[in-house]
Design brief:
heterodimer, A: about 100 residues, mainly alpha, about 85% helix, B: about 525 residues, 22 helices, disordered C terminus
Chain lengths: ~100, ~525
């Protein structure tokens, strides 16, 4: 069906448009997954910091290493949330 | 407020009072009195007033030379431009947000005081759930700002001055004869007086609002300096007398009670109805201050958005109300977040530090502009230049650092937060200047590097070659995260190609150019 449409109109333009549309969709999917994972990481760092559900003892996290884990996870989560959000924003721009 | 360039000296002075006489007197006296200076708060206020007058001399010169909407942001941007203008503009915005949050907390305390005479149970409930009330109040005023409703006017200022004049006269009649002025030696030492001076300083700084309102003056070059100096001079005896009456009308036994000093004094002078009347006045002052702060923050945010420092969406105009609804909503949310925090001493110091930082910037700008633009038209010149601005800068910096060196924990917290915020402000400026696509490419590179590292470490951990970095996260989950990071990192890294491709499609550049025969 798509081939038919392409033959009726300009071949080169439509083909590029289709490929970019596909790329943008994949970008959106991966961006959304990364953003969700990054948010989960931030959430996890908060759970650790405030020791909700007694996670610190449940996971045997030493008090000396807590700051490292929390800071590392928090920075990682925020930075990669931004990275994922950029891809989602790319998709948003492409459809609006 | 009259429209166009028609404001007279009286109108400008009133707009200065409108900025200066607000909720601060109801809330800042307490901590300064109970924890810092005791009765010597009177001396702290007098000193604070004199320093404010010194700083306002610099404002007078710049306000008369550049009577433009934007105030301090305009002066600092003219002197330094770029990143410095952005940082000081951001701090001015932040100071407005902190002041509004403080006003919201003060409103709840005043409301609680009203109910202390009616129903102590309701008072306790209000104090326990103060954050909910703060959110409701800010949401309501934010909605009014979005709708473009005007809340309070200059009449309220005159009513306040009359009310406080009545309070002072009542205090004198009640028994000022028992006063022991400036107890010697100072009851909590010179350090306490200094810390109290810094803490109560926001009571004076609102006068600078008139440089913004003064841009509509008929003769700004003449009236702005006069109005600034008149307002600053008037505020000194005004606040000193208010504090004096409050301090001397409350007996030492009553001093242990941690409620509003001013309300308590009014209670002692005029009975319970006096205290309640002053509380209602305090509530009106708080609402007025929140409304003003919402407008000011919106104006600064839009100015910075116009200059490309803040997102352009802040300049969006509501199609229904014709107001800058996005700027109002963003400001309201920031104020809500801070008011929920609710720590009055912290908010007090934060508001004071933000303003002192901007004051130092204004004085530095004055000196720089004298050098870089010596022929600029200056209808008013700061006396004793350069001693006055240098002294003002030194005092501002000393007032920022002083309370921390004196060991005030709240001041240390506020300063630490301020340094953290400064780092964030500089970083955001840098990122803003770098531009989105460069940032996206940088993040992409980081993502690929981090993703590959995580994949290698996870596979090694799965093969029992190394111990897992995060023993509480399963290695296969880390592997998945690493793979996603690599792919998204590639997409982000490759973003310019995509943009180039998009532009090609939009312009139709992939089509072959028409041959000369076709065009004919």
């Amino acid at each position: 069906m798509r081939t038919k449409v392409r033959r009726k109109t300009n071949l080169v333009w439509d083909n590029d448009c289709y490929l970019i549309y596909k790329k943008v969709t994949i970008r959106f999917l991966f961006g959304a997954i990364q953003a969700l994972l990054a948010l989960s990481v931030v959430f996890l760092s908060l759970l650790l910091e405030f020791n909700l559900f007694d996670l610190q003892s449940l996971w045997n996290i030493p008090p000396a290493g807590l700051d490292f884990y929390v800071s590392f996870l928090m920075i990682l989560g925020i930075v990669f949330f931004v990275g994922g959000a950029f891809l989602v924003y790319d998709w948003w721009e492409s459809i609006s | 407020m009259k429209k166009g360039k028609q404001l007279k000296l009286f109108d400008i002075v009133i707009s200065g009072f409108s900025g200066a006489i607000g909720f601060e007197i109801f809330i800042l006296l307490n901590y300064a009195y109970f924890h810092l200076a005791g009765p010597d708060i009177v001396l702290a206020l007098a000193l604070g007033g004199v320093i404010n007058l010194l700083i306002m001399l610099s404002y007078s010169e710049l306000g008369a030379a550049m009577p433009l909407v934007g105030g301090e942001y305009i002066y600092i941007k003219a002197a330094y431009g770029g990143s410095v203008g952005f940082v000081f503009g951001f701090f001015r915005w932040l100071a407005a947000i902190f002041a509004a949050a403080l006003a919201a907390v003060a409103f709840v305390l005043q409301l609680a005081f009203v109910f202390s005479a009616i129903s102590p149970n309701i008072q306790t409930m209000i104090l326990n759930q103060s954050w909910i009330l703060c959110i409701i109040i800010i949401a309501a005023l934010g909605a009014l700002e979005v709708r473009g409703s005007k809340t309070f006017g200059g009449l309220v200022v005159i009513a306040f001055i009359l009310l406080f004049a009545g309070f002072i006269i009542g205090g004198f009649v009640h028994g000022i004869g028992q006063v022991r002025l400036f107890s010697t030696p100072l009851s909590k030492g010179a350090a306490g007086v200094f810390a109290a001076m810094v803490y109560v300083f926001p009571m004076f700084i609102g006068a600078r609002a008139l440089v913004i309102g003064g841009s509509g003056a008929a003769k700004p070059e003449r009236d702005i300096p006069r109005a600034l100096i008149l307002t600053s001079i008037f505020l000194i005896p005004f606040y000193v007398l208010l504090a004096l009456v409050s301090v001397v009308t409350v007996t030492p036994k009553e001093l242990t009670q941690q409620i509003s000093l001013l309300n308590f004094a009014a209670n002692s002078i005029f009975g319970s109805y006096g205290g309640i009347a002053l509380s209602i006045a305090g509530m009106v002052a708080c609402l007025s201050s929140i409304g003003t702060a919402l407008s000011v923050q919106s104006s600064i945010a839009r100015g910075m958005s116009r200059d490309g420092y803040f997102p352009k969406v802040l300049q969006s105009v509501s199609s229904r109300f014709g107001t800058f609804h996005v700027a109002a909503i963003v400001g309201s949310l920031a104020i809500m977040a801070l008011s929920v925090f609710g720590a009055i001493p912290f908010l007090g110091y934060a508001a004071s530090f933000g303003s002192l930082f901007v004051f130092a910037g204004v004085n530095l700008s004055l000196m720089r502009l004298r050098k870089t633009r010596p022929h600029m038209n200056r209808p008013f010149k700061t006396p004793l230049y350069p001693i006055t601005p240098i002294l003002a800068v030194a005092l501002c910096l000393g007032m920022i650092v002083g309370p921390v060196l004196l060991g005030d924990g709240n001041a240390a917290d506020a300063l630490t937060s301020a340094i953290g915020i400064t780092a964030i402000v500089f970083s955001s400026y840098y990122l803003r200047m770098v531009g989105r696509f460069r940032l996206q490419i940088a993040l992409g590179g980081m993502g690929i590097a981090m993703g590959v590292s995580i994949v290698v470490v996870s596979i090694s951990a799965l093969l029992d070659l190394v111990t897992p970095l995060f023993h509480f996260i399963p290695s296969y989950l880390l592997l998945l995260f690493g793979l996603v990071l690599v792919v998204t990192g590639y997409f982000n890294f490759n973003t310019q190609k995509k943009q180039a491709g998009k532009k090609t499609i939009e312009t139709g550049a992939t089509r072959q150019p028409p041959s000369p025969n076709e065009s004919t």
